[in-house]
Design brief:
Oligomer: single chain
Structural class: alpha/beta
Number of domains: 2
Bound molecules: magnesium ion
Radius of gyration: 18 Å
CATH superfamily of the largest domain: HAD superfamily/HAD-like
Distance between the termini: 16 Å
Largest sheet: 9 strands, mixed
Number of helices: 9
């Protein structure tokens, strides 16, 4: 029997990247093992394509990636040895689009803002300078973060009650809501799980058998974690385990977030799978 090919799907912010500094330095030991063992690391983030490309360059990563909470799946041309259907070819990627057009999403958020009268501020209304101060991003990355294609992150003044109203409004308009750890997100009917499911099918076709691992720290990672064989949840201090995960087989919960926790979790996985 052939040994299944391991494929790792990973979130960025608060997982591979430090939630404050965005550094992945502490994960370098496991990153180099992944590379040495030729285990594909597929980045799956709420970040934009432009931002993810920035990190892929620094990680020397050439694998497919998922942008904006599953809005777009970007597959480098000739990555898979067979042809498959995709929505468009952009530069050197074949793109499968699950998300809705960004200007439509922004318009709907504006409508929701008017209908509720809530203090809502979307990414599209924020300047690069504001993003630098809210997210601690460098100006260069803030510029890339504004190149959105499928998902609008937003700030909302208020608590649980306001979130409940917003969620209902979003559902009424046939869209998805998600919480990414720093921003609320409004998007089409896409999520990381739907994107990972498609990529899993492609990897299976390429390698016959695969074992999928997923790692993330936030609610927007749940659909991805539910889609993989071995989910790893990086749990923030004092936070509780999301209910959806409690019955998931093979679940591993690691205390702590960011690249240090990511590094330990991946070293564990490699050891557990005798790789
Ligand atoms: Mg995260």
């Amino acid at each position: 029997m052939t040994i299944p090919k391991l494929v790792l799907f990973s979130d960025l912010d608060g997982s591979l990247l430090d939630p404050k500094t965005y550094s992945f330095k502490s994960a370098l030991p496991s990153l180099s093992i992944l590379k040495f063992k030729r285990i594909p690391l597929v980045l799956s983030s709420s970040k934009t394509r432009a931002e993810i490309e920035w990190y892929r360059k620094r990680l020397d990563n050439h694998h497919p990636f998922v942008s904006e909470n599953g809005g777009g799946i970007f597959i480098p041309e000739n990555y898979f040895s067979f042809s498959f259907s995709y929505d468009q070819k952009r530069e050197r990627y074949l793109v499968i689009e699950l998300g809705q057009c960004y200007p439509c999403i922004v318009n709907i958020l504006k409508k929701i803002k008017n209908e509720t009268g809530f203090e809502i501020k979307g990414f599209s209304e924020m300047t690069e300078k504001e993003l630098v101060s809210i997210c601690g991003l460098s100006e260069e990355v803030a510029r890339l973060a504004k190149k959105r294609e499928y998902d609008e992150p937003f700030l909302l003044e208020g608590g649980e009650e306001e979130i409940k109203v917003i969620k209902k409004k979003i559902e009424e308009k046939g869209l998805y809501y998600s919480w990414g750890g720093r921003f609320h997100h409004l998007m089409g009917k896409n999520d990381k799980g739907k994107a990972i499911k498609i990529l899993k099918t492609l990897y299976k076709k390429e390698f016959s058998h695969i074992t999928s691992i997923g790692i993330g720290d936030s609610l927007n990672d749940l659909p991805m974690l539910l889609e993989v064989d071995y989910p790893i949840f990086l749990r923030k201090e004092k936070s509780s385990l999301p209910g959806a995960l409690s019955f998931k087989k093979n679940l591993k919960v690691i205390q702590g977030t960011g690249p240090e926790a990511w590094n330990l979790a991946i070293l564990d996985v490699i050891r557990d799978h005798h790789l």
